[in-house]
Write a structure and sequence with these properties.
The chain is globular. About 55% of the residues lie in helices and about 0% in strands.
Amino acid sequence: MTEIDKIIEILRRWINQYQKPTLRSTVKERNPFKTLIACLISLRTQDSNTKKASENLFSVADTPEKIVKLPLEEIEKRIYSCGYYRMKAKTIKHVSGVILEKYNGKVPSSTDELLSIKGIGRKTATITRVFGFRKADCIPVDVHVHVIANRLGWVKSKTPEETEIQLMNIVPKEYWFELNTLFVLFGQKICQTNSPLCSECPVRNNCQRINVNRSR
């Protein structure tokens, strides 16, 4: 068993005590559109607020057609609990319009097509592919995945894009689908960006603690 195998196995057991983050809960529905919109809402927002805002919006509009028909002010009101709600409301309405007009209301499944839509970045595109379409051919990398992968010594990278490429070169493909979920929740609860809870870390004996200058 490799070091990666050991850490994944430990985190699989550890995560069972928690509810999965909002974006991962859409996996059961296999709804690419709701995954995409929830991800746009989640940017720079706590998961509890993402969940509240997403549910508020989806209760009245959960398709591109319905979103486009909503006044911008109504979208803002529905997602008010998330950060930058005015900017995100404009993005959500724009993205929904493009999907409706260019893709007949169906979210495109390719990364390039998703990235061609203004307002969709690489993290959002990969999350939509993985959790919306269940395509385990990429690893979504946000700040938690980027920081944790470097602390563990799995990668040596400066950007999330570099982290994604390096992880795909060393992490067995069987783990790609779940890696983001494991690392995001682990980053929220234990391996926090500014000051990780190393004293409570379930993988502290397997971590190189690279660039960890302060911990608890």
